[in-house]
């Protein structure tokens, strides 16, 4: 599907909503958001260097109400605050205020344990997970529509070689743009054999999911070669809160005296308590097989699980049959689109247009109907 010029103009006028992007990786590009055709960017924080920048971007393009986004024509940024699994080794989970030795910390969370002292000494001093969560909670409260993200698990990621971009040294960065990158990204550096242990990643992820649950915020989840582990972690959070199966609902509705006296009061009291899991979760640039969707979309899962797709990730290979099959299998109301790009502007708009057209083609939607559906999905994911 290519879309006529009129159809494409109508698409932009209706509203295109990027569910996951990183324009603060080149902060100078944030000013270009005002000139973009996309209406809303959901901008992810990932590490220490970009939390303030995401906050600043959100203040430049503020959202006052969901109605603004649904009906307005301005440009908006919805911020997401979180710590990406690629940088999870930089966080320690020690409860005391005293920070652990950096060398011992990294030897305990990296696999295999490094013995290269030059590499170890190039890594930044680990920061406190507890303190980060306190700061993130303050940010989330300051932005009532903010998400938690980008968080997740990644089995394939390997740390880059030093001098580490994670220390803020960008003197030898490679590729990408003439603009200055925000410090902390990989920036094309050669990779080491070291990975972050999955157990440490899980601890960092679980703490952030708990925060999202506490504040009732949606979450954007990164998952690479870890979809089963991510699901198991989520499942452990909502255990005991599953929705009844169709058979159980039918049995309960037909049972005599199904609602004993006083049950209504108990239900009302329970509804005031925050649930122990995030209400809505997006598996961003979902790369798992179609068969794995069944566990996420089971009728008993009490959280609403969405799946976003990007041209850059899901359709980067000549053969994209897996992504096509997944998009065919996801329910109409659980599909989101994203650019996952590090730089705002025309290229981001181009990638968004490409993925909207691709999804409409795969689903057999007209461009008008597909744009409206994707818009409604994003609004429901972010605002509930």
Automatic annotation (TrEMBL):
It comes from the Eukaryota. Pfam families: TatD_DNase. GO terms for molecular function: hydrolase activity, acting on ester bonds. Residues 158-192, 240-274 are annotated as: Disordered. InterPro entries: Metal_Hydrolase, Metallo-hydrolase/TatD-type, TatD-like. This is TatD DNase family protein.
């Amino acid at each position: 599907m290519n879309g006529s010029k009129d159809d494409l103009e109508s698409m932009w006028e209706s509203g295109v909503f990027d569910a996951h992007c990183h324009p603060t990786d080149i902060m100078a590009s944030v000013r270009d958001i005002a000139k973009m055709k996309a209406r809303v960017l959901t901008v992810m924080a990932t590490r220490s260097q970009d939390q303030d920048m995401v906050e600043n971007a959100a203040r430049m393009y503020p959202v006052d109400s969901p109605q603004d986004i649904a009906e307005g024509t301005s440009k908006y940024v919805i911020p997401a605050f979180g710590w990406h699994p690629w940088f999870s080794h930089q966080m320690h989970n020690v409860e005391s205020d005293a920070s652990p030795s950096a060398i011992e910390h990294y030897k305990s969370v990296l696999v295999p344990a490094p013995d290269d002292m030059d590499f170890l000494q190039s890594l930044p001093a680990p920061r406190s997970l507890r303190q980060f969560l306190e700061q993130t909670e303050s940010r989330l409260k300051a932005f009532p529509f903010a998400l938690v993200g980008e968080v997740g698990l990644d089995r394939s990621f390997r740390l880059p070689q030093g001098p580490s971009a994670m220390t803020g040294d960008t003197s030898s960065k490679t590729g990408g743009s003439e603009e200055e990158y925000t410090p902390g990204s990989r920036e094309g550096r050669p990779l080491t054999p070291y990975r972050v242990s999955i157990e440490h990643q899980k601890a960092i992820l679980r703490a952030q999911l708990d925060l999202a649950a506490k504040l009732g915020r949606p979450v954007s989840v990164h998952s690479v070669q870890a979809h089963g582990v991510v699901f198991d972690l989520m499942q452990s959070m909502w255990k005991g809160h599953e929705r009844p199966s169709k058979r159980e609902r039918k049995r309960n509705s037909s049972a005599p005296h199904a609602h004993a006296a006083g049950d209504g009061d108990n239900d009302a009291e329970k509804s005031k308590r925050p649930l122990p899991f995030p209400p809505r979760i997006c598996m961003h640039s979902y790369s798992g097989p179609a068969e794995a969707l069944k566990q996420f979309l089971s009728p008993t899962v009490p959280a609403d699980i969405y799946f976003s797709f990007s041209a850059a990730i899901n359709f980067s290979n000549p053969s994209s049959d897996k992504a096509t099959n997944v998009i065919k299998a996801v329910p109409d109301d659980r599909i989101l689109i994203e650019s996952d790009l590090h730089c705002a502007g025309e290229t981001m708009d181009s990638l968004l247009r490409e993925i909207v057209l691709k999804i409409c083609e795969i689903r057999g939607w007209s461009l008008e109907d597909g744009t409206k559906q994707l818009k409604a999905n994003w609004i429901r994911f972010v605002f509930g």
